[in-house]
Amino acid sequence: MSATVEFFDRTMMEAMALLAETRRYLIDRSESERKGMSVETGLAASMESMRLVARLTQVLAWLLTHRAVHAGEMTLVEATRDDRRLGGRDLCLNADGDDNPSLPEELRALLGRSFALYRRIARLDELAAHRAADQLRQNELTFPGKGLSIGPKLEK
């Protein structure tokens, strides 16, 4: 269990550090870099900046949800409901901007790192969903007709 907690802590710190770097870039350099760009390149840079923020937002939301699972505040089955799974796959798994040589180097580097982090979390999301499905199947075999819930119910 401590290895899992350490993993979440390290990954959360990585995501938060990347978010802080992204914030610094967007506040300090993004606007001035776009002034010298063509309209098309500036638009591409704006779109890729939004993709970068979307990736980090989705990753952080997923990490917080699964941290709640490991803290016993939520079951894995609850955490893998469709509305709690890693979102934005169509947008976030598109890596076109990472290799666009007309975009600033720092933006491309942030995009590449956020893409790698998002892909790691996407794989974990798939594994978690499979584990939850296995738990549901096992629960149904052990307690036929007793519902799909696994773990303690939280009071509302």
- Assign the CATH topology: Helicase, Ruva Protein, domain 3
Estimated radius of gyration: 19 Å
| Reported CATH architecture | Orthogonal Bundle
The biggest sheet, with number of strands, parallel, antiparallel or mixed sense and barrel status, is: none
This entry's quaternary arrangement is single chain
E-strand count: 0
Distance between the termini: 27 Å
Structural class comes to mainly alpha
Number of helices: 5
Shape: elongated
| Overall structural domain count | 1
Mean pLDDT: 88
* Low-confidence spans: 149-156
The run of helices and strands is: HHHHH
- In CATH, what is the homologous superfamily? Protein of unknown function DUF1465
Write down the CATH class: Mainly Alpha
Structure description:
- There is one protein chain.
- This protein is mainly alpha-helical.
- The chain has a single domain, classed as Helicase, Ruva Protein, domain 3 (Orthogonal Bundle), CATH 1.10.8.930.
- Helices cover 72% and strands 0% of the residues.
- It has 5 helices and no strands.
- The longest helix has 38 residues.
